[in-house]
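Today's session is about reading a structure prediction critically. Students often jump straight to the picture, but the first step is always the sequence itself: look for stretches that repeat, for charged clusters, for runs of hydrophobic residues. Only then move on to the predicted structure, which in these notes is written as discrete structure tokens rather than atom positions. Here is the chain we will use throughout the hour.
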Amino acid sequence: MMGVFDFQELISAFIVLFAVIDIIGAVPIILDLKQKGRSVNALEATLIAAGLLLAFFFAGDMILKLFQVDIASFAVAGAFVIFLMSIEMILDIEVFKNIGPIKEATLVPLVFPLLAGAGSFTTLLSLRAEYATVNILLALVLNMVWVFVVLKMTDRIERLLGKGGIYIIRKFFGIILLAISVRLFTANLTLLIEQFQHGN
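Below is the predicted structure for this chain, in token form.
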């Protein structure tokens, strides 16, 4: 059920989630929220985001079955979402409008949609088409630890990296996400074509 632990898979899943969650890229947004007097609780934000992502990781399968969608089809759809997110990061354009009743910064917009948004949900389920559950869960836990550290040290990280450093990191991970979306798309499209051919 959980699969076999594989260090290479763990690292790959960690990098994918690291790029999608993009907590370093969110540092300027978090600082802006703090300047506007909106408090951000690092522990609360991390725990709620982790809870949401874990719930979707385990219940996502049931949701897919309910709509009669297989994991390969979802992974192809997920590849499109990841592709659009990478385009946002590389070209500095806004595809996903973060519109919502923003009252409490910890929940909105920090937890949703910045940490646990459509991209993270889609990526988690898309990863299930390729990696063992144990490796994805470990990668998620490590990412949540990293998120907590960054949230606790936002001011220091911005001073350390500077606006230019954050900008470069965002571009770098945008390109990685683009490559991941292409790989997800081609691998799962091949799987769907094979299924279709066997079906006929």
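Discussion point for the tutorial: DSSP finds eight helices and no strands in the chain.
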